């Protein structure tokens, strides 16, 4: 496993990869070069307030079958935050992904997204179907949507969220924890997962200074969206995805993903499988998830 950095136009993305890049940073003049061995490239995209290490348990088992890259979204893990005058709009993640893929070789590329990463992956495959060979969507399908009559309240609450952030930004920045163990325990309580399952993710999510331990992620991530698309918009995007899709859901994960309006029925060619676990089922059942991914990849050889 190698630490890798990808230079985009406005910022850089930190990440992990199965291969070493010849330079310190991947950029347009020094793109990723992979051996022509027929193995597909898997690009792992994590969920909200997670990071690239969310997929750590999958890497050893998948490496013989593919090349892989996992990135930290802006404001997550080791990636820098967005500029001070910016927030975290859903569609900006698609722009990040578009720039990232421009740095990668043109070959069979499968996007593996969890939660937020899954929503971004599906929308991107609709916009640029020629760049995506397949999708593996873990506990995520169609982009979040709501009825149009909620637009006014959504806007009001989103603006209030930004007001709260500005009011308490300094207080958020000064929050510290006494130890790594305290941070790990907090995350375990939130996600209802074990310390062994979350240690890689938390290790990449925190940093230490003379005052204690603190979370790396940008506190602006907690600000509510100013808008959400309608169900008609979400359905149109999912219906435009032409590539094969593997939907992996947890037995105790989001129940909406098992329902028709969750987005699965809108996809042209898709299979949904259930594994033991909740929203982070890839951490709870890594072997089952790897087995399903390897089976899915076999059709692209």
Keywords:
301 residues; 2 domains; Rossmann fold
Describe this structure in words.
- The protein has 301 residues and is an alpha/beta fold.
- It folds into two domains: 2-146 and 230-300, Alpha/Beta hydrolase fold, catalytic domain (Rossmann fold), CATH 3.40.50.1820; 149-222, no CATH class.
- Helix content is 33%, strand content 18%.
- The protein contains nine helices and eleven strands.
- The chain has helices at 59-62, 90-101, 116-127, 151-173, 180-191, 195-205, 231-239, 281-284, 286-297, and strands at 2-7, 12-17, 25-26, 41-45, 67-71, 109-114, 134-138, 206-209, 212-215, 245-250, 270-275.
- It is globular, with a radius of gyration of 19 Å.
- Pfam families: Abhydrolase_1 (PF00561).
- Keywords: Hydrolase.
- GO terms for molecular function: hydrolase activity.
Shape call = globular
CATH architectural grouping of the largest domain: 3-Layer(aba) Sandwich
Q: How many E strands?
A: 11
Instruction: Work out the count of structural domains.
Output: 2
Percent helix, as a range, is 25-40%
**For the record, what is the CATH homologous superfamily label of the largest domain?**
Alpha/Beta hydrolase fold, catalytic domain
Question: How much strand content do the residues show?
Answer: 15-25%
Q: Count of DSSP helices?
A: 9
What's the mean pLDDT score? 94
- C-alpha-based Rg, rounded: 19 Å
Instruction: Please write the string of helix (H) and strand (E) elements.
Output: EEEEHEHEHEHHHEEHEEHH
Q: Helix/strand/pairing class, anyone?
A: alpha/beta
Largest sheet strand order? 3-1-2-5-4-6-7-10-11
N-end to C-end Cα span: 24 Å
Biggest sheet architecture: 9 strands, mixed
Low-confidence stretches: none
CATH class of the largest domain: Alpha Beta
CATH topology tier name of the largest domain: Rossmann fold
Keywords: Hydrolase
Protein name: Alpha/beta hydrolase
Pfam family, one: Abhydrolase_1
GO molecular function: hydrolase activity
């Amino acid at each position: 496993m190698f630490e890798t950095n990808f230079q985009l136009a406005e910022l850089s993305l930190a990440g992990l990869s199965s291969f070493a890049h010849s330079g310190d940073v991947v950029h347009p003049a020094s793109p990723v070069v992979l051996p022509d061995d027929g193995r597909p490239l898997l690009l792992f995209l994590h969920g909200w307030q997670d990071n690239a290490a969310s997929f750590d348990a999958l890497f050893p088992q998948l490496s013989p079958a593919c090349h892989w890259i996992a990135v930290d979204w802006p404001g997550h893990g080791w990636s820098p935050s967005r500029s001070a005058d910016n927030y975290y709009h859903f569609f900006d993640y698609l722009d990040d992904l578009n720039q990232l893929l421009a740095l990668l070789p043109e070959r069979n590329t499968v996007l593996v997204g969890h939660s937020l990463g899954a929503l971004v992956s599906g929308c991107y495959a609709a916009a640029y179907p020629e760049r995506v060979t397949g999708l593996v969507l873990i506990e995520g399908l169609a982009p979040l949507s709501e009825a149009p009559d909620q637009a006014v309240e959504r806007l009001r609450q989103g603006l209030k969220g930004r007001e709260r952030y500005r009011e308490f930004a300094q207080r958020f920045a000064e929050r510290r924890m006494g130890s790594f163990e305290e941070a790990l325990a907090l995350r375990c309580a939130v996600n209802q997962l074990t310390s062994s399952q979350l240690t890689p993710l938390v290790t990449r999510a925190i940093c230490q200074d003379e005052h204690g331990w603190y979370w790396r992620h940008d506190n602006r991530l907690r600000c509510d969206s100013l808008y959400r698309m309608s169900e008609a918009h979400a359905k149109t995007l999912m219906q435009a995805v032409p590539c094969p899709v593997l939907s992996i859901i947890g037995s105790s994960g989001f129940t909406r993903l098992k329902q028709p309006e969750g987005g699965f029925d809108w996809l042209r060619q898709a299979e949904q499988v259930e594994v033991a676990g909740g929203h982070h089922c890839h951490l709870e059942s890594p072997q089952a998830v790897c087995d399903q991914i390897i089976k899915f990849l076999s059709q692209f050889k």
